[in-house]
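Write out this protein's structure.
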Amino acid sequence: MPAPSLTPSKADRPRRSPPRPAGGPPPTGSRLARAVRRNLTAHAFLVGAVLCFGFFSWYPMVREFLLAFQQTEGGRTTWVGLDNLTTVYHDPAFWQAWRNTALFTVLALVLGFAVPFAVAVVINELRHGKGYLRLLVYLPVMLPPVASVLLFKYLYDPGYGLLNELLGLLGLPGQQWLQDPDTSMLSVVLAATWMNMGGAALVYLAALQGIPGELYEAAELDGAGLFRKIWHVTIPQTRLVLSLMLLMQIIATMQVFVEPFLLTGGAGPEGSTTTVVNLIYQYAFNFNNYGAAAALGLLLLVLLAGFSAAYVRLSRAEDE
């Protein structure tokens, strides 16, 4: 009986596809088709998101840009060039609205930027009850703005308001919080800070919890107290988050509308709480001058875009 051969026969040998010449085209239905089939669901979701974003965000921006150079009367739309910008510029309320908006932005940054960070530092230093305190701090954000405004209207009421009651217990005279031009803007800022600080506080708290504990231990060994640890460890380690939140809060405060509109009716005493966005609202819905409203909105857009571009450029220069 012959010994079995160790060499496989031709029938048992695996078949190999002929080698593809180097540099030749890939086979039909290769990488691109497989990538499309693999990501078909993701592309479908992406198309829906892009359509929604384009329809609800980009289209209104383009429409506003066109409307800023148009005038509509009697159903007829005509191009008027820079007439809408001229009308807005010569309005006596124009510069007052910008001054009020700048004042609100400064006051809101002094309180709305520092207070949430301080609250986050305090919560981060506690050992117990952090979850309860996080919920307590974020609770005002979950309340409807109208409910929060009604609460502050009760607090600011000159007759039976809680703030004037407390001042009376201290032997101090009551204040016309929302009716006095000197205190109306500060009253709006306090309400806006309480209503919106929860989200920023949670962002700061998340950034603080990412700081390595070894840095604080090294600072303690060097004899650093609480404030020196915050200045030399906490702030440098959260610089990126702080700068980003600063930019976002400036953009948000420059577009403030809800709090002044609900607390003081928009204009306030002697126009002390009239903001740029409130003036846009008046042009559009009180005067039916949509061209002027779009022109003022375009000015605000250009200002915020320029500020954002300058911030990005300075941030890149610091990183380099």
